[in-house]
Design goal:
This protein is an alpha+beta fold. Helix content is 38%, strand content 17%. 3% of the residues are buried.
Length: 88
């Protein structure tokens, strides 16, 4: 359930309220009886780390080429190991 912030236009009282999206907005201040309005606040969602843009939204070829080259290198390494194992 989202948390909404409301501010009283008369006294400036700010209230946080857990509400369903379908619930009606608060309209009356519990302190002075004035008109309340919904505030727009910053979200607490942050993208942290490196490479969000590069890995998710950049050209598809650059990311897939790196993955395919890593897979081919890994498969060659495995082939060499099995070939060497059979030689001894």
């Amino acid at each position: 359930m989202p948390i909404y912030e409301y501010e009283c236009e008369s006294c400036g009282y700010v209230k946080e309220n857990w509400q369903k999206v379908s619930d009606p907005p608060l309209s009356t201040c519990e302190k002075c009886g004035g008109q309340m309005h919904k505030l727009i606040s910053h979200s607490s969602f942050h993208l942290k780390g490196s490479g969000w843009y590069v890995t998710d939204y950049a050209g598809k070829k650059s990311g897939s080429e790196n993955v395919s080259s890593e897979k081919s290198t890994a498969s060659k390494t495995k082939e060499k190991k099995t070939a060497c194992d059979s030689c001894s």
